[in-house]
Task: structure prediction
Amino acid sequence: MLALTLRVTGVAIAVAAVIGVPLGLILARSRFRAKSVVVALIYTGMGLPPVVVGLAVYLTLSRSGPLGSLGWLFTPTAMVVAQIIIALPVVAGLTMAAADAIHPELPLQLRSLGASPSQEARAVLREAQPGVLAALLAGFGAIISEVGAAMLVGGNIDGQTRVLSTAVVLETRRGHFAMALALGGALLTLAFVVNALLLRFQSVPRRLG
Amino acid sequence: MGRWFAAAFLVGMLAACSASPRQVLRLATTTSTEDSGLLEAILPAFEEAHGARVDVVAAGTGQALELGRRGDADVVLVHSRSAEDQFVADGFGTARYDVMFNDFVMVGPREDPADVAGAATAAEALTRIADSHSTFVSRGDDSGTHAKEVALWAAAGRLPQAESGWYLSLGQGMGETLQMADETLGYTLSDRGTYLSMADTLSSLTIVFGGATIADNPDPELMNPYGVLPVNPAKVPGVNNDLAEAFAEWLTSPQAQSMIGAFGVERFGQPLFYPSAPTS
Result:
């Protein structure tokens, strides 16, 4: 159960990072007319109720839904899909805010010093790194503890799709409150270890660019 | 003028506060009584008769009984006979009264690959499912329905494990379990009321064992009795036992019993619950 929880949430946050971090950086740097609308949509997405995401994924992957033939419903894959959708706006939105906050003249200076676009992007990313890391951790925290979507699309099947958060709900419903609390503690510990590891990784002194 | 008005308003407020000794009864029950709409249909009559308000917490039988043990409910209405008897034996309940019953049915895909329809008893039906390794979706949540399923597996002499692949233990409610059976073309055990109320959304499922109505159910093991248990104030201090006992008495009265028997007839053509309190 512990391993499955880490696997599902780990894959989901990795995919959300690969899409969300570049998206946030690009949005922060670009100027176009509908940008305020896009930004508002992303921030709204940060408050997306997980149950609604779960329901949408469920209806899509259901046997009578458009992607039912994939056979993903009630598998860890379906849970990963739902968690990506929940985490993506958080990662993209907070990355964008972090990149927005760095000195506006930095990219200009870099370019005047003859930096290539990829060098420039890397420098901006390095500058915004604490904020980007916070974005990833916020996304991670949102999905590892999430219950509504995981129940709906995973089905909480013992030994197959039962993760820590859904197990807490089950034990509560059974009236096994002590067990539910213990599992909740395990979930918190897991989140803490992941956070501590990533923050340690961040505090390694940065190379001067 | 304004001052008099304010004074009158204050007096009125105070009077309103002190004149509302409306008692609250905390009822812990199972999702089947709440989801079927039964409580909504009958509780207003009790509330009116006793000038009380009933706060309903619907949970699995396990959680409902635990709420009673912890003093978070004054009275419990559940359907798991052995757990109920244990509750009274441990001193948490003052007594257990028969209220009503309905029955369980085996629900499965129309094609019925395990030929459950040909079984003579529910236990034999489960044996056929196990032997053919057909998908079986279990509540797995210590609810009354789950307790019945476990007892039937024991009677069948089989102990399915999550590792076996075809046995899916969910730990979710009846509605979610039926939906998964529909999606995975699996079998499951359901109370008739919940299945009937959802049947139009479960396109691939049908009742494969248990008959079209409770009178057609061939296996008495599938009967599903509900009991009401007031929480014992001597063991669990602070509960509203007077109102709880009044509720138990009302629920087993001819008036409430006839309301229970009439509920659902209009919509489903058959009652969802049959009254079972002894007539005095």
